[in-house]
Specification:
Helices cover about 35% and strands about 15% of the residues. The chain has about 240 residues and is α/β, with parallel strands linked by helices.
């Protein structure tokens, strides 16, 4: 990778298949690797599974109250581990973290690598080992996330330059924001108000797409282009 240790990741967050397929095709066209953190089963997830040369599937467990994944940490882990048997990597939904949750993941799945530490713009980032009663977990901080960028007073959508600082460079996108080219939460919130996200059709979302300026999609494609030029990037488990 010409000395650059970088990975592109995506949190599915129950996105409809056409949005997942859209982001995946952009990466396939460029030969760029990615790790997808899975929230649900779908035909699009099965299509991701058909490209192990490019794509790694990880867990995206929702430990929040009222989660559709389960009522206890053990239930949540069991549900998500069944979605992606053998998954090595995890990023928790909403970045929920605690040593008991880590122990539940280590006890109930094959997870070895956690990517739930968000350190925006950090440099000299490296993998660290965390030991707990459950055993060893390798933690990989990540440095940019599309929906968090929307809160910034001066959002930075030209993210390919963030590849240049030393250390691990891991980026997080969401298929829904890539498809909408989100630069604010308003279109996403309007879309969710129409029906459950997984039931949204392309025609529902088309009128809400940002076609007039930079956003998550322009950042995603620019980063994918840069990673393609550097050899395609890595899957997060390869960086551990």
């Amino acid at each position: 990778m010409t000395g650059v240790r970088a990975a592109l990741t995506l949190d599915l967050d129950w996105a409809p298949d056409f949005m997942i397929d859209d982001a995946a095709q952009a990466l396939v066209d460029r030969g760029v690797r990615a790790t997808w953190f899975v929230t649900h089963a779908s035909p699009a997830v099965e299509r991701l599974r058909e490209r192990p040369d490019l794509f790694e599937l990880g867990l995206h467990p929702n430990f929040l109250a009222g989660s559709s994944h389960g009522a206890t940490p053990e239930e949540v882990v069991a549900h998500c581990a069944a979605l992606v048997p053998g998954a090595r990597a995890v990023r928790t939904h909403c970045l929920m973290q605690s040593t008991p949750l880590h122990d539940a993941l280590l006890a109930g799945s094959d997870v070895e690598v956690d990517v739930s530490l968000f350190l925006p713009g950090a440099t000299h980032v490296e993998a660290v080992e965390q030991w707990s009663p459950g055993g060893r977990l390798v933690r990989l901080p990540y440095v940019w996330q599309d929906n968090m960028e929307m809160y910034a007073p001066r959002a930075q959508w030209s993210v390919d330059g963030l590849l240049d600082p030393p250390g691990l460079r891991i980026f997080d996108f969401h298929p829904v924001h890539v498809w909408l080219n989100s630069a604010s939460f308003e279109p996403y919130e309007r879309l969710k108000a129409t029906r459950p996200l997984g039931e949204v059709a392309p025609e529902d979302a088309a009128a809400l797409r940002n076609d007039d300026g930079p956003g998550a999609r322009t950042a995603f494609l620019a980063l994918a282009d840069r990673l393609a030029a550097l050899g395609g990037g890595a899957k997060v488990s390869d960086l551990a």
